[in-house]
Design a protein that fits this description.
Helix 3 crosses helix 6 and helix 4 packs parallel to helix 7. The protein is globular and about 55 Å long. It has one domain: 3-Layer(aba) Sandwich (L-fuculose-1-phosphate Aldolase). It has 7 helices and 7 strands; from the N terminus they run H-E-E-E-H-E-H-H-E-H-E-E-H-H. A hairpin with a 3-residue loop joins strand 6 and strand 7. By secondary structure, the chain is α+β, with helices and mostly antiparallel strands. The model has no long low-confidence stretch (mean pLDDT 95).
Length: 217
């Protein structure tokens, strides 16, 4: 694993940062980086992200097999992204409280209500809410597939969030942007209610987003 020590340290750094931000508690969440066509580094199963170290990171292939260590029980989500999104180099699954709460409070909601905030449209486009799947099952990966590779930021219904990027920083910024946006929308709904932008303005912003590309901003 010494060959990928830098990448292992990146995973540890982001794990600690997500815990500090309140997006992970105890053994929650999992993070991975793809370092070669068939080599993925991923956080181990049942380890608190606040205390994880580089030597604990597990190496697995695209089938989820590892020679040493036990990869996260939720590896199926990561594998689904790497198989369906060729540009994906990093995947983060976290449990941001407010973003997740939207899927609990509004179980029929199909996506985060992005049409109220210009920055949300420009930075992320749409944020779908992926149908619930029991944690650790293959359905967690299958439910993601219809949103890949187009969507890089997703809420997992009643569970958490998943982001991917062309590097681990982009995947992390997706988590940060998601929770920040979910918080703004929550505050607005508590103060009064959400007021969408005019349809023509939403359309103009969506056109701007297309020109900016698919990356998380």
């Amino acid at each position: 694993m010494m060959k990928y020590l830098h990448e292992c340290k990146q995973i540890v750094k982001i794990s600690h940062r997500l815990h500090k931000a309140g997006c992970l508690a105890a053994c929650d969440g999992n993070i991975s980086i793809r370092v070669a066509e068939n080599i993925i580094l991923i956080t181990p199963s049942a380890r608190p992200k606040a205390f994880i170290t580089a030597k604990e990171i597990v190496q697995m292939d695209l089938e989820g097999n590892s020679q040493e260590g036990k990869p996260s029980s939720e590896k199926q989500m990561h594998l689904a992204v790497y198989r369906k999104a060729p540009k994906a180099k990093a995947v983060i699954h976290a449990h941001p409280p407010i973003a997740t709460a939207w899927s609990i409070a509004y179980p029929d909601l199909k996506e985060l209500p992005c049409d109220s905030c210009s920055e949300l449209i420009l930075a992320l486009g749409k944020v779908p809410i992926v149908s619930y799947a029991r944690p650790g099952t293959i359905d967690m990966g299958k439910n993601l597939e219809k949103f890949l590779p187009k969507r890089r930021v997703m809420i997992l219904s009643r569970h958490g969030s998943l982001t991917w990027g062309e590097n681990i920083e982009e995947a992390y910024f997706g988590q940060e942007r998601l929770e920040h946006s979910a918080k703004m929308l929550m505050y607005a709904s508590c103060l009064n209610k959400l007021h969408p932008l005019p349809k023509e303005e939403v359309k103009a912003l969506e056109e701007m987003r297309k020109k900016l590309g698919d990356k998380i901003l």
